[in-house]
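Newbie here. two chains, one complex. Structure please?
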Amino acid sequence: NAGVTQTPKFRILKIGQSMTLQCTQDMNHNYMYWYRQDPGMGLKLIYYSVGAGITDKGEVPNGYNVSRSTTEDFPLRLELAAPSQTSVYFCASRETDRVIPNTGELFFGEGSRLTVL
Amino acid sequence: GQQVMQIPQYQHVQEGEDFTTYCNSSTTLSNIQWYKQRPGGHPVFLIQLVKSGEVKKQKRLTFQFGEAKKNSSLHITATQTTDVGTYFCAGRGGATNKLIFGTGTLLAVQP
């Protein structure tokens, strides 16, 4: 059971380059999230999706874009990379609420470590 | 916007000592979750608390949700070296009802 899979695990970008972080989950979860974690800090929500075709901004969306064309995939696009985007990026998913709304654990991928030089 | 703070930021204990981390939200929460992240790893879900005043135990770990649903705590009894890592609380509440992670507490356990 793969769970949440992120690629690549590591990447070095030059300032101004663009790239896409891939995230796929095989648990048929409707909810998917992208977080970034700076060294020694907590997780900040970048974007999230409540289902295919629906995305919304989180706390720190500037400089990023997302799409959700399928239930399984939730790629994160970085346009014009900047040093401030150096971070570890985590994708997560959770299943649709069953009994109590807005509950349920997040399942995280192993992370993508991005350095922008 | 909603903020979730944790104290302490860092705690160093001798193996066998107890450990507690506290989580405080600027807004009332509908529920709170706790996650553990080992060094170099990803966050792993520990537990969720929903009811006011709720207390849950997992072996040596005790989780509490405050009566006002604005704070929570995690207590570890008799720490072991396997408890090393960063413990995050994550609260859902406020106008957006998004899950907001706390700043985390890094626990170091000396054998």
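Moderator note: Chain A is about 0% helix and 50% strand. Chain A has a mean pLDDT of 93. Thread marked as resolved.
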